[in-house]
Amino acid sequence: QLFVLHSNQPQEVPFIERPQQRETMSSVPPATPSKRGNKALRRTPVTVRSKQVQGVDLVTGKATVEYYFDPTLVISESNGSDTLKTPKKQPKNENQFFTSKHLYMPCTIIKPLDEEATKSTSRALTDPYDGPTLVKTADGALHKISTSTGLMALKSPDDYVGVDDVLHLPEISEASLLHSLKVRFKREDIYTAAGPILISVNPYKSLFRPDGESIYSEDEMLFYRTRQVNYEEKRPHLFEIADRAYSALMDSVKEGTAAGVENEDPVLLLEDHHLPGKVRNQSIIISGESGAGKTEATKIIMKFLARITRKEDRPSFVKSPDGKMIAALEDRVLSSNPLLETFGNAQTLRNDNSSRFGKFIHINFDTLQGAISGATISNYLLEKTRITTQVDGERNYHIFYQLLASGDENMIQDLGLEKGTEGFKYLGNRSGKGGVLAKDKVNFAETRLCLKSIGLGEEKQRAVFSIAAAVLHLGNIEFEEEDGSENAKVSESSIPSLQKACTLLGLDEANLSEAILMKRLIVNGKTIKKPQSIALAADKRDSLAMMTYSNLFVWLVRNVNETLRSESEGAPGTSEVNKGFIGVLDIYGFESFEVNGFEQLLINYCNEKLQRHFNRHLFEVEQELYANEGVDWSYISFNDNRPCLELIEGGGGIVGILNTLDDSWGGMGTSSEKDIKFVAQLHKQFGGSVDGKTARGHQNYVTPKFGKDNQFVIIHYAGEVKYTSDGFVEKNMDTLSNELRELGENSSLPLPRSVYTASSQSDSSRSSIRGVSVGSQFRTSLQELVADLDRTQPHYIRCIKPNLTKSPGSFVPGEILKQLRYSGMMEAIRIRREGYALREEHESFYKRFSVLLTTDDLAGDKPGIEQLVKVLSKRLHVTDADWQIGHSKIFLRHELADKLEKLAELRIRSAARTLRNFGKKLVLSRLSKFIVTWMRFRLKMKKQYRETKAASLMAAWVRQCKQRKKYMSIRAALIQLQSHKRRQIACERVRKIRDPFCDMTFKECKEKLELEKVLLEDAVKSKKFRQAAALENKVAALEKAVEAKRPLTRALVDARIAEINEKIEDAVNRKAYDECGPLQEKLEELMAKCEELPTENELRAKIAAAEEAVAAAAASKDFATAAEKQAELDSARRRFEEFVEAQVVGEGTTDNVGMMGIHSRAQLEQEIRDLSKQVEGAIAVKDFTKANSLQQSLDEKEGLRKFFPTTKEIEAQLNEAKKEQDKAISKKDFTTASKMDEKISDLEKKLEVEKEKTAEVSGDDDQEDKVSMVTLSGQEMSFESRGELEKAIKEMTSVVSKAVAAKEFRKADDTQKDVDALIKLREKLPSVFELEKQLKVMKQDMDKAIKAKKFALAEELHDDVEKLEMRLKTERALQPPPPKDLAGRDTHSVKSVPVVATVASAASVRSAATTPAKQPVLPKQPLEVSGPSSDKTVKHLRPSRPLSATEDESILSITQMLATKRGNAALLVGPTGGLAGILTDTDVTRRVVAKDIDPATTSVNEVMTPNPTCVTMGDSALDALSTMVE
User: Fold this and answer.
1) Which residue stretches of 851-893 are H helix?
2) Cβ neighbours of residue 498 closer than 8 Å, sequence gap 6 or more
3) pLDDT per position as a tens digit, 570-618
């Protein structure tokens, strides 16, 4: 259909918005590139020119009008076929009205059913007719209605497409509202605004934008948060409500915020006037029936608030005060919601995720930073009965099914959940509908993630799951009667379930059985246990299960609140003034089932309370504010539910149902009898006739005709609900036995114990006589909740359930209309439409809109708010109905406020345009002058530029020529230098080709020659003649090079001079005078070189003369001359050294020149040993590159062994040569004997040299074994053995004692430092004991080498053993003799030792308990060890015979020995047999026990008193005692 405007003017087709034409405005801030496109569709406003909108039939071309169909006008079929007569007015059938699928569906009039009306030509057939009429609804169905004049016509295009805000409908009625919601629902616009109230219709499916993204995506969040986007471009959405609340909270602390806030809460205006800079807390109240989408709306709002306040640089996980890693605060706030849903939500017939508890979430904000600073969750009335029983088609709480679907076989086995839902009574023993679902496994993973985010680790998570599983096992405990009695006992088949529940809860099996099966009574101070029947035992079992689960839920809420507590608490700079919160209320919806119990009463009572809050804020206080301000206003009636609240909670002279329920607990009788008594009391107080119109009956209470004993009816704002009182009294008082509570609080497991303790903390008001009244507690909680809401700016979200079958896309008009009616939406829309949406202070309003007044208007008698209103009313042609002036505020309708805003904006724009024109004219004038000046300057600069450019070109050309000339000259010079360098390189190559040894010195050539000769001999012996020939040529070339490079010496020059003189004499004798000339020139050259090469005597004479000159100058203090002579002396000495070196090099002997710097076998072996150590060191540090290089050098050195025989090999060669010489002499072969004699002489010299080199190397080794130090006095001390070192220590210690005795403390301190330095040298010189160990190990290595036939290694080890034995012999000789009492005895089994004065030495470094004093405590007079004194000796003191042991034993063994033999001291013997220290029982107490040292692993030498002072049995007792005292 195509809609047009019906008017006398030309018809124009208005814009009709299609579902696919939704705005796609960018949802990101302007700085971010747009993801939704820049071309956003805008809705063109429609101008309504006629009261009715007509459609054009495309077939007939006739105009038609559509109406809203009213099913109550349908003519019943019982009227027969006589439809031409007007039937009597039928009573309105409510059931027919709400169940009709055509309720308020658009329809068209086909024709009247009256024949006379059909024949009439004065009116059209499609006009309304007061009589039977045939109509056709939009789905094509035909209906006969009694009259068509009662139909309401569609009057605007907005009626067809729906509007974002129903306040903008041209005419608001139930039909237009319902139809607008329907058309928007069909195109998936589920959110519709009704002023400040958001109507949300549950679609039962996921919704997406045209670009494929969800309507709750992050882009959508940022789009609604972006303030640069016009308000008109934002469609109604949950994000809009959340952003409005957040913006109101943040803007409330800003003093510059505009005072005229639209839709400001009248309660805050009337009772708590907002001051600038004061935080105005916000609340978002989400209401609706069960299944309307309240829980999902809560999660979406929390996600929005967390996203817009999250900082990008904030880490995902942070460390809590107790050191645990928890999620960031925003993530914790979001995780709390699905976590509580897992434990507090269940699947019902109306809702797959129904909240079985209520919660009010305080999300705290820091208004300075705009970020979330914490959160608090308050929970209300968890439905406990669902834990034990559920109706068909419903499920228990989600956590039970998630555990069964977790997929963790180990956990399922540990918790005993292998049977599944079929194996547990509390899960209905069913696996079909109501069993485990596919999504439970995914939801369980989310639950574990939420638990982790609030700081619960794997261990605590497993404990939480164990408690939940224990509840299921409690439900499987069955009872049976004992033999011969009605007393209950646990059946045999239920014992495993009982045991498993006790294991998971940490309870004792016997105690739990007794608590369930027995009732404890206290009579006259005595405890009596009474057996329970099967029914009572089952009740106590169910009560324990419900208490356990509800306590677990309370514990979880508390734990969540602890993790969500404000991070700014106690932080510097934070103030309560800057803190605010947004409260999100998600509470159970109105419920009405076939059987309604105590929980439904409290749930519906809560909804009545919230509806009362809604009425008060939108109706009562709004109209009260108008009255207080003196505004002319006609009162709007609404459905007031105050009487129903008074009926439930009491008030207004009424006791109330909850109070009556509390009073029904007293008295005798069973629980069912008390329930019947309670209902009877209600009938007596509030009951009347069925219609509730008797004088003494309450208007909201109805006594049912049937089931009066246990049923009663309450007329709620949402309809009548019949309640069945079974279990009311018992549930209200929470009569759980104290045994079960105490049993849980004494659990052996920590987490179950804290869970059970949580209930006792929350039940602090519990009476010992009777239980806590659940109803009174719930009433108090609701009153506190409403009080909190009254102190906030509320934002309402009304969730609507479109159908009862949870079907996506199904829109049942009757069901929705019911919810709209009882929620008071029509009255709220009317008061918002007819009321004044904007209220503003007089001063603020005048300041904002006084710009609309002219100068003449301001010149009136009374310039002020009244003058402003008068002028603007006349100018805008508005009446007092559009705005009114109150006592302190001015009240405006929404349309007029928009007009004023636009006029003020236009006035400001006009003023800005005037200023802009003036400024533009002024700028143009100045700009013209500037342009003329600039053009003149430009022409001048252009001319100057051309001149400068020409000059620059000429200068550049000149510079180019100069630079080119310079470059060519440099290039020619470089070419010449390159040619010279190439010539030099070529000459060097030719020289090396001609003389390969040109770069080698004489010494290098000499060494190379010797090496090549050795290689030549080796090649000849090996019969490698080709190699020998090549080596022979190389040796010949080397010999020539050696002769050519031999340095000139004075002897060599003198020899050549003598040779030339002989040649000259020979030439003269031969009269070959032509040869004399060249020889004479050579002779002169050599004579000149003689002067350059002085003799040794000449050089020594020069040195002596220079020394005398220096001494003479120094004696005469002529220091300048002395410096000059000293320089001459240094020069003479250098010249003498060069001479000596030249003499050595020029001798030409091979004895002083080694191979590769090696001159003997001993030197070679020493270098091999050094290289071996270096290789091992490189391998130890994993420096394999260095190890490889060193190994190559080592291989080369080892290859030279065949060229350097050992002394034994030389001796063998010498003996062999002597034998051959004797053989030659015996054979009279004197030629051979002569050669052998020369060989023997050479071998003897070589042997002598080798022995000298071996002795030198051995001397160096011996020198390495020595240690030395320099004392503070400058004396150098060296030691070859440990005995010498100990002797020196003893001597210097005696010096210290004498210095102390003589009070020469400085000397004693210096000497003590030397003693300490000597003691440190002990580590470098092994003791006799250590040498014995080394000798033993070395002999074992030698035996192993002999067994392995490694005789070369065995020979070397044998030499080392001999050296070590000699050293050990020397070391033993230097050891002091043992004490007299120890002579001839085994030092390791000493029976008696001399008396010891345990004076600690300051040099001790092993005892941790020795007093760190610089001065040692010694006797004043040194003790004489040998001669006894005239006084009593030590022997007269009868000293006890101490025990002895070695110093390397453990403290434990020593103390055990002392305890066994009842000794009080032990003497400790060192490895050398001497006294090393003493250990007394006092030492054990102070040094071992006091310092908590482990005696089993600590050696006694670490705590003993080392080097104690000794006295003999013959010494003076007085001296010994004084020594001990000192």
Assistant:
1) 855-858, 865-876
2) 473, 477, 490, 509, 512, 513
3) 444 455 667 889 999 988 778 888 888 888 898 889 988 888 888 777 7
| pLDDT (0 to 100) of residue 575 | 59
Rounded to whole angstroms, how far apart are CA atoms 1270 and 975? 67
DSSP, res 651: B
> 195-204, 1120-1129, 1414-1423: which has the minimum mean pLDDT?
1414-1423
Amino acid identity, position 1086:
L
Q: How confident is the model at residue 914 (pLDDT cuts 50, 70, 90)?
A: very high
Q: Which of 261, 309, 301 is nearest to 283 (CA)?
A: 301
DSSP 1467-1482: EEE-TTSSEEEEEEHH
| Maximum C-alpha span of the chain | 186
Cα–Cα distances (Å) from 944 to 933, 934, 937, 949, 956, in that order, read 17, 15, 11, 8, 18
Which residues neighbour 571 within 8 Å (Cβ) at sequence distance 6 or greater?
A: none
Task: Decide: pTM greater than 0.90.
Answer: no
Look at 296-310, 1093-1107, 1191-1205 and tell me which has the smallest mean pLDDT.
1191-1205
**In terms of C-beta distances under 8 Å and separation of at least 24 residues, what long-range contacts does 726-729 make, across chains too?**
726/597, 726/672, 726/675, 727/597, 727/598, 727/671, 727/675, 728/597, 728/598, 728/601, 728/661, 728/664, 728/675, 728/678, 729/661, 729/664, 729/665, 729/671, 729/674, 729/675, 729/678
Q: What is the pLDDT of residue 1449?
A: 85
Report the distance separating Cα 721 and Cα 592, nearest Å: 6
- pLDDT number for residue 61: 55
Q: Which amino acid is at 1223?
A: K
**Residue type, position 1311, single letter:** T
Strand partners, 283: 583, 794
Dihedral (Cα; 1244, 1248, 1254, 1259), 10-degree rounding: 160
- Mean of the per-residue pLDDT values for the chain? 78
φ, ψ of residue 81 in degrees (nearest 5): -90, 0
Residue (of 556, 386, 403, 547) closest to 465 by Cα position = 403
| Length, in residues, of the chain | 1526
Question: Left (φ > 0), alpha (ψ -120 to 50) or beta: where does 480 sit?
Answer: beta
Q: At what angle do helices 865-876 and 842-849 cross, to 10 degrees?
A: 50
Q: Please state whether beta strands 358-366 and 371-380 pair in parallel, antiparallel, or not at all (unpaired).
A: antiparallel
DSSP state of 705: S
Return the amino acid letter for 1503.
Answer: V
User: Which class for 471: exposed (0-12), middle (13-18), buried (19 or more C-beta within 10 A)?
Assistant: buried
In three-state form (DSSP H/G/I as H, E/B as E, the rest C), the secondary structure along 174-203 is HHHHHHHHHHHHHCCCCEEEECCEEEEECC
> What does the alpha-carbon distance between residue 105 and residue 813 come to, in Å, rounded to a whole number?
9
Nearest to 587 by CA among 301, 360, 825, 820: 360
Residues 419-434 have pLDDT tens digits of 888 889 998 876 655 5
Amino acid occupying residue 169: L
Cα distance between residue 772 and residue 774, in whole Å: 6
How far, CA to CA in Å, does 466 sit from each of 330, 502, 505, 544, 589? 29, 11, 7, 15, 31
CA distances from 1514 to 299, 1424, 1517, 1518 (A): 100, 10, 8, 12
* Cα separations in angstroms, 1102 against 112, 180, 990, 1094: 158, 131, 44, 10
What does the alpha-carbon distance between residue 489 and residue 483 come to, in Å, rounded to a whole number? Answer: 10
Find the DSSP H helices in 650-773. Answer: 657-663, 671-686, 728-733, 738-745, 750-762
Please classify residue 808 by burial: count the beta carbons closer than 10 Å to its beta carbon, then call 0-12 exposed, 13-18 middle and 19+ buried: exposed
Taking the C-alpha atoms of residue 821 and residue 611, their distance in angstroms, rounded to an integer, is: 12
Helix, strand, coil shares, percent, the chain, to 5: 55, 10, 35
In degrees rounded to 5, what are phi and psi of residue 114?
-85, 130
**To 10 degrees, what angle do helices 329-344 and 534-563 make?**
170
CB within 8 Å of 1201: residues ≥ 6 apart: 1161, 1164
DSSP letters of 529-547? Answer: EEEPPHHHHHHHHHHHHHH
